[in-house]
């Protein structure tokens, strides 16, 4: 496949976060801490770790916390420097140095497809990754780098798929697929948004990682509102999958994924990530065992 312009990354962060009210009344859900970093920082770190240094965050109203987080804070940095607290200084500077962060307002949330369309002017004619902040992918289990490689190899849209319990498939987009020559990669032949268990074409769920060609913008511009009266990215992907000249491929992810979009799963994500850390894990694991024994 011929060389293309460098990948950019798009992170939609304009949702209202109603499941986390009242915590999200004045703070974006993407800024809720997962252990000691806001959820969105994990996502930006993932993009940067895959070699993408141009990141566009699609924001809604009252999301200036996100902008501030990735900006430098000279007075705080100076205080930490004067105190000799170099560990904390490094953490503060790290979030400012991760990537070139750009921001654009969505106005009102009209669906994931509309959020992606808001990135058109910035992305221009670059291929780009879309990373949803609700899905945190463990840095020890690379997914995005694999997807970027598949895009380079096949010159087609690549989405992330994960096997889920059939009883949970109604919470996701479900893919109908055909095998390819690679065991971990499938050709997507169709997509169904949040199907009933009996109507699902498989238990392969679409999770929040996509690598897209800028050609998707032309499709999104004429995609009518679908489920929930929103412009669905799934509808555009279905059109791409049905076009033999374009196509959609799926990378099947079998690593560690943390769902922070649900209150219970958010708490589980914090416990899982903290228990794996050298500084917190030993004490936390011991406490969890003791606590579980009292239940």
Question: How does this structure look, described?
Answer:
The protein is built from eleven helices and 13 strands. The longest helix has 13 residues, at 263-275. It has 295 residues and is an alpha/beta fold. Helix 3 (74-83) packs antiparallel against helix 4. The model has no long low-confidence stretch (mean pLDDT 90). 35% of the residues lie in helices and 23% in strands. It folds into two domains: 8-261, Alpha-Beta Complex (Spore Coat Polysaccharide Biosynthesis Protein SpsA, Chain A); 262-295, no CATH class. The strands form three sheets. The protein has a nine-stranded mixed beta sheet. GO terms for molecular function: UTP:glucose-1-phosphate uridylyltransferase activity. Keywords: Nucleotidyltransferase, Transferase. Pfam families: NTP_transferase. InterPro entries: GalU_uridylyltTrfase_bac/arc, NTP_transferase_dom, Nucleotide-diphossugar_trans. Belongs to the UDPGP type 2 family.
Summarize the structure.
Helices cover 35% and strands 23% of the residues.
Largest sheet: 9 strands, mixed
The fourth-level CATH homologous superfamily of the largest domain is Spore Coat Polysaccharide Biosynthesis Protein SpsA, Chain A
Low-confidence parts lasting 5 or more residues at pLDDT below 50?
none
Radius of gyration using CA atoms only: 20 Å
CATH architecture of the largest domain: Alpha-Beta Complex
How many distinct folded domains?
2
- Helix share, percent: 25-40%
Work out the number of β strands: 13
Shape: globular
Question: H/E element string?
Answer: EEEHEHHHEHHEEHEEEEHHEEHH
Tally of helical runs: 11
Q: How far is the first residue's CA from the last residue's CA?
A: 58 Å
Keywords: Nucleotidyltransferase, Transferase
EC number: 2.7.7.9
GO molecular function, one term: UTP:glucose-1-phosphate uridylyltransferase activity
InterPro entries: GalU_uridylyltTrfase_bac/arc, NTP_transferase_dom, Nucleotide-diphossugar_trans
């Amino acid at each position: 496949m011929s060389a293309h312009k460098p990948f950019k990354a798009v992170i939609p962060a304009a949702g209202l976060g109603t499941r986390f009210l009242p915590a999200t009344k004045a703070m974006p859900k993407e800024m809720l801490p997962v252990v000691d970093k806001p959820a969105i920082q994990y996502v930006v770190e993932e993009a940067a770790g895959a070699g993408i240094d141009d990141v566009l965050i699609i924001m809604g109203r009252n999301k200036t916390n996100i902008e501030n987080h990735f900006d430098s804070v000279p007075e705080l940095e100076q205080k930490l420097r004067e105190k000799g607290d170099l560990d904390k200084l490094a953490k503060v500077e790290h979030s400012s140095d991760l990537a070139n962060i750009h921001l654009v307002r969505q106005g009102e949330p009209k669906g994931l497809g509309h959020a992606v369309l808001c990135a058109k002017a910035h992305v221009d004619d670059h291929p780009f990754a879309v990373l949803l902040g609700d899905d945190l992918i463990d840095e020890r289990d690379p997914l995005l780098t694999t997807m970027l490689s598949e895009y380079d190899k096949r010159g087609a849209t690549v989405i992330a798929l994960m096997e889920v319990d059939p009883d949970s498939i109604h919470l996701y987009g479900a893919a109908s697929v055909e095998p390819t020559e690679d065991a971990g990669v499938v050709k997507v032949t169709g997509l169904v948004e949040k199907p009933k268990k009996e109507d699902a074409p498989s238990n392969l769920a679409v999770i929040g990682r996509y690598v897209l060609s800028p050609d998707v913008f032309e499709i999104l511009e004429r995609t009518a509102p679908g489920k929930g009266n929103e412009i669905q990215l799934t509808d555009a992907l279905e059109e791409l999958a049905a076009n033999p000249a374009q196509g959609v491929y799926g990378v099947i992810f079998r690593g560690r994924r943390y769902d922070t979009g649900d209150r219970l799963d958010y708490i589980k994500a914090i416990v899982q990530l903290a228990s794996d850390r050298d500084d917190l894990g030993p004490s936390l694991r011991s406490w969890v065992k003791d606590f579980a024994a009292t239940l």
